[in-house]
Design a protein that fits this description.
With 313 residues, this protein is an alpha/beta fold. Helix content is 44%, strand content 10%. It contains ten helices and six strands; from the N terminus they run H-H-E-E-H-E-H-E-H-E-H-H-H-H-H-E. It has a six-stranded mixed beta sheet with strand order 1-3-2-4-5-6, with helices on both faces. The two termini are 16 Å apart.
């Protein structure tokens, strides 16, 4: 949810001279302008028609978690088949799910000013944190000649800071700046730090029972930490909808997203979550001890006051 808040600021962070007024979202058909001969029933039919058309368009374009799945090892996925070499490069380092799913609603806006790629790691991969840092560093160093920005969210925020510090205390030469969205540097003093014991206990159960227990635990947790449902169902351009349609559209979106909530435990199975949580706890402790005041790069931090997982403020 908080990914919506940082997008405009991130544009200004990297490309202030290119920003200008964004085109207004296209308005849907104005219900009030329709000829009403029989009162409320005609208005209701028109509203239903607009709502149906709106949701059909959104359902056709809304990606699923499975669309972001990869195989093999850690890799960077391009938003477009070909990069525009005149644009700076934005490398998104995601949260603990390590896919581009969390970014997909911001991609159209970000792609106006950046070439966007995201780090993706399959759930069966057991790369070390050092291996992930090296993969990001290689991606940065392979793009000499244009500015490169790291956008790290949660787990990715810790990874971005680690890359920016460099193995020798110096950032890669092409790295022009870092943006951190609710970085998980504080995980050691939050409730997820207690999860390894619970995950170990669940993993010790017989296989079928272990899977069922994890699914039963993870689904409500993932749903609870997803944020305010009104924000989760909101989209840019909703203000252009007639007021009577805004709530039905929001509810329809939330209903559409329910299957994705249930898919999260499959996208991040128990062994993957346990491995990545262990990496994060150790890496965050190391970053906390690092001399960050020596970092000579622009760093913007976007912290949410309503983060339900980590104490970001």
């Amino acid at each position: 949810v908080y990914m919506l808040a940082f997008t405009t600021a991130l544009h200004a962070f990297a490309t202030p001279s290119r920003l200008g007024p964004r085109p207004a979202a296209p308005c849907v058909q104005n219900v009030a302008a329709l000829p009403i001969q029989r009162g409320a029933p005609v208005l209701q039919l028109a509203s239903d028609s607009i709502l149906t058309a709106q949701m059909r368009r959104e359902m056709a374009s809304e990606p699923r978690l499975a669309d972001f799945a990869v195989t093999g090892g850690p890799q960077f996925v391009r938003h477009t088949a070909e990069d525009d070499p005149t644009k700076p490069l934005l490398l998104y380092l995601p949260g603990i799910e390590l896919s581009g799913y969390s970014l997909h609603r911001q991609l159209p806006g970000l792609a106006e000013d950046f070439c966007v790629r995201w780090l993706a790691v399959p759930p069966d991969d057991r790369s070390s944190f050092e291996a992930l840092r090296e993969a990001v560093t290689r991606e940065v160093e392979a793009e000499e000649g244009r500015p490169i920005y790291l956008l790290g969210e949660s787990f990715g925020g810790v990874l971005a800071l680690s890359v920016a510090q460099g193995a020798d205390g110096k950032p890669p030469s092409s790295l022009a700046g870092v943006a951190l969205v609710n970085p998980a540097t504080s995980i050691g003093r939050s409730w997820p730090a207690q999860l390894p014991r619970l995950l170990d206990a669940v993993a010790a159960l017989p296989p079928n029972l272990s899977d069922a227990a994890y699914f039963a635990l993870a689904t409500p947790i993932f749903a609870a930490i997803s944020g305010d449902p009104r924000q989760l169902g909101a989209r840019r351009g909703d203000e252009a909808l007639p007021p009577p349609l805004r709530l039905p559209v929001l509810l329809a979106r939330l209903a559409q997203q329910m299957p994705e909530m249930g898919a999260l435990p499959n996208a991040l199975p128990l062994p993957a979550l346990a491995h990545r949580l262990s990496l994060l706890l150790h890496a965050a402790a190391h970053v906390q001890e690092a001399p960050l005041e020596r970092l000579r790069l622009p760093v913007h931090v976007f912290a949410s006051s309503e983060d339900r997982v980590l104490p970001s403020t």
